[in-house]
Specification:
This protein is α+β, with helices and mostly antiparallel strands and 345 residues long. It is built from ten helices and 22 strands. The chain has a domain of 235 residues: T-fold, CATH 3.10.520.
Length: 345
Amino acid sequence: MIFRILLAVSGLLLTVFLSACGKEPLYQEQGYVFGTLVEVSIYGDNEAHAKQAITSVMHEFQRLHNELHAWQPSELSELNKAFAHGDSRAVTPELAGMLTDATKLSIKSDGLFNPSIGNLIQLWGFQADEFKPVQPDEKLIEQRVATNPQMSDITLEQGRAKSSNPAVQLDLGGYAKGYALDRAAILLKQQGIHNALINIGGNILAIGQKGNRPWRVGIQHPRKSGALAALDLHDGEAIGTSGDYQRYFMLGDKRYCHLIDPRNGHPMQGVEAVTILTHGVNAGLLSDGSSKPLFISGISGWRAAATTMGLNEAMLVDAQGVIHITNDLKKRLEFTDKEVKLQVE
């Protein structure tokens, strides 16, 4: 059975609750980029200005998608070729900044956020526009894990990047959406937009508010249609979810998702979703990259990982549907599924 990414957009990680009634000054546009559905909503501005602002954001999304594509011709794929051959390559200041930030985040997560494991992601079939069930040879998995690619293997000097480890193959899929959220916020503010909501496949960033109230968003239930919970998202806050229900395939009765544990080379099991709430500078980026270490840490390690990552508002849904949640996030959420089992940790 083939799972097309396009079919997955109907199950966005997060759902935005927006009123479309009456003459409310709300303008929205949707697009498809980064392999997922994106949506920008602007409140309280005239349609012409809002449309112009959103068009600039959509163009920025497409630019980033083209430059950061891991398996089609792009600046990133050319850099991967250079790494594999032991060569250095000139990189733009923007990409150099991304690599620096991603390395810092990887080190902070003790390597659980690791965009350098593109070879493992490719081996499991997730560097493709459609997913086919595959069971890689275990020896090949072990060989790729043994090469131990790390973001710290990359050095940047005089505008050029080089890796001391030819096994480093970058896949910024767990970083690009968050970076794009922050870029979109900058573009909108530069154009005088004061109230907007940016949604990239379920990673959502709020600017201002929706009239006289905060933006209201919902967290997708990982195994049911509709929302698991809802919350008000305030100015400068972002929320992101890493889940096993959008990019995955089934082999027999076992689910294999795109979130791979770099320590053993296998897709993570036992976790359905992790949601985190972030604030302030780079909130979008953090909402994307910081959720992965919690997911990969699993039930036994997610809380310690949240502390390490400086996340006070986080939750994990395990394979039995039990919600493990911090008290700070529990205070913010309104659960729409009244039968949930909560475990405050």
